[in-house]
Write a structure and sequence with these properties.
The protein is an alpha/beta fold. Helix content is 58%, strand content 16%. It is built from 16 helices and nine strands. It has helices at 13-21, 24-50, 53-97, 99-102, 135-147, 149-158, 163-167, 194-218, 237-265, 276-309, 316-323, 341-350, 358-372, 387-398, 416-423, 439-451, and strands at residues 108-119, 170-177, 180-191, 222-234, 327-331, 378-382, 405-408, 427-433, 455-462. The protein has a five-stranded parallel β-sheet with strand order 5-9-8-6-7, sandwiched between helices. A four-stranded antiparallel β-sheet has the order 2-3-1-4, with helices on one face. The radius of gyration is 52 Å and the shape is elongated.
């Protein structure tokens, strides 16, 4: 017989999985034992340590420190969140209502006026003592009068604006040249339209006239002349940058607020050790679970290694592919042994039929022998399975094949009597047993049969 000498063994993951599942009892036992041992040891150790007075005192002190730090950090985070929430709401309101933030930086209307303030101050030649120049004081008085809260509120009310939004539209500055005051007071108003810019400018020029008599009486006589008055549209790139910065500020505030809220939600209040028994139980459960996983993994590892390294016959399918031998029948090797529900379920998932009709199966085996061993006068039943199974197969086939002489042998590799019987028979029927027979021995059996020019009709496998 020309069996498959070029066969290369491959690991069948499906068979490996079912081989592992069939070892569920030792896996479960190892998991339970190691879980009990490791969990019990850690629980006992934790209970003994937790009831030590020194440990209890240290645990209470650590708890108080941790609780104090937790409450401090929590209070700080809550204040930060409150401040950020308010600041973010204010910034949103500002961006929504501010005239400056909502006007186009590429179409800004600007009204500008330069006011020349002249006093009666004159330089007196050849005099050591000069009169006091109060021009700067007059200019500062006008600047203060036009920027004070009362005047700003008045103008803002007339323009139907909030004073905070008006202040950023108006700029009042004193002119300087060579680090000296040059008698100029400049009023600049930016607005979204020509009419509104002019209206605000008129209000401020009116404010200059309203304060003129008061400043004269308080400081000194002077005149105020508008030397330059302009109104036009311009591009203000600095405004574009400011608008961008203010929007980015709102984004940064919201991002920081979200981070602080997440940080607060992730804070865990330290737990006080109320009962040493509870802590010991938690430790026991934790390490019990770890022990169970380790125990199951250890057995799984050895089962997998054993499956890969083992030479034992696992299934009839592997015999067929490895040695190109015909499988004439598959018989259960459970006998009268009761099979549990889990094992039965695993076998059904794997495709193995446990409740085979043995008599019907022997009938099929006999029919296959008639088909594949046509003309054979004698048939030797041998194999590396259990001797009683070989004898059983021979006895069952004897009554079903009256025209064929059935000779029950044993193991061709260990029994000389079986070798003697081999020379006097036409064909050979192999009987192999999963979990008992070895692939290497089956290979040697086939070689011996081939060397004597005998035909292997097929193989009966006990699964």
């Amino acid at each position: 017989m020309d069996y498959n000498q070029s066969y290369e063994q491959e690991i069948d993951l499906k068979e490996l999985m079912f081989a592992v599942l069939r070892r569920w009892r030792p896996i479960l036992a190892a998991a339970v034992i190691l879980a009990v041992l490791l969990g019990g040891y850690k629980a006992f150790s934790a209970y003994r340590a937790a009831n030590d007075e020194t440990v209890l005192k240290e645990a209470r002190e650590n708890y108080e420190k941790d609780l104090e730090l937790y409450e401090k950090n929590k209070a700080t985070s809550e204040r930060e969140i409150e401040n950020l929430t308010k600041e973010s709401a204010d910034q949103e309101e500002y961006l929504e209502k501010s005239v400056l933030m909502n006007m186009s930086p590429y179409d800004v209307w600007e009204a500008k006026a330069d006011l020349f303030v002249k006093t009666d101050y004159e330089i007196m030649p050849d005099m050591v003592y000069q009169n006091i120049d109060f021009t700067g004081t007059v200019l500062q008085s006008y600047q203060s009068a036009l920027t004070n809260a009362e005047f700003m509120e008045k103008v803002a009310a007339s323009q139907k604006l909030d004073s905070r939004y008006l202040k950023e539209l108006v700029s009042i500055s004193i002119g300087h040249s060579d680090n000296k005051i040059n008698n100029l007071l400049t009023i600049s108003v930016k607005h979204e339209s020509e009419a509104k810019a002019k209206a605000v400018m008129d209000e401020f020029l009116a404010g200059v006239n309203q304060n003129k008599s008061k400043i004269r009486s308080s400081i000194g006589d002077h005149t105020v002349t508008v030397v330059n008055n302009s109104l036009g549209s311009l591009v203000d790139l600095s405004l574009a940058d400011r608008q961008k910065n203010e929007n980015e500020r709102l984004t940064n505030l919201n991002t920081t607020l979200e981070d602080k809220q997440t940080q607060l939600s992730e804070m865990e209040q330290p737990e006080e050790v109320v009962s040493s028994g509870n802590a010991a139980a938690k430790s026991g459960i934790k390490y019990g679970a770890i022990g169970g996983v380790l125990g199951a993994f250890a057995v799984l590892f050895f089962v997998c290694v054993g499956f890969v390294m083992s030479d034992k016959v696992y299934s009839a399918k592997e015999l067929k592919y490895r040695f190109k031998v015909k499988i004439l029948g598959i018989l259960p090797q459970t006998g009268n042994k009761k099979i549990g529900r889990i094992d039965r379920l695993i076998s059904r998932m794997e495709g193995r039929i446990l409740d085979r009709d043995v008599e019907r199966e022997y009938g099929l085996i006999a029919a296959n022998i008639c088909n594949y061993a046509e003309g054979a006068k004698s048939l030797l039943v041998v194999g590396s399975g259990a001797e009683k199974l070989i004898q059983e197969v021979g006895e069952k086939l004897q009554g079903r094949l009256p025209d064929v002489k059935i000779v029950s042998g044993g193991n061709l590799l260990t029994e000389a009597e079986s070798l003697k019987k081999l020379s006097g028979c036409d064909s050979v029927l192999l009987v192999e047993q999963c979990g008992i027979s070895l692939y290497s021995l089956v290979e040697q059996e086939i070689e011996k049969i081939r060397d004597l020019d005998k035909k292997v009709v097929g193989c009966v496998v006990f699964e």
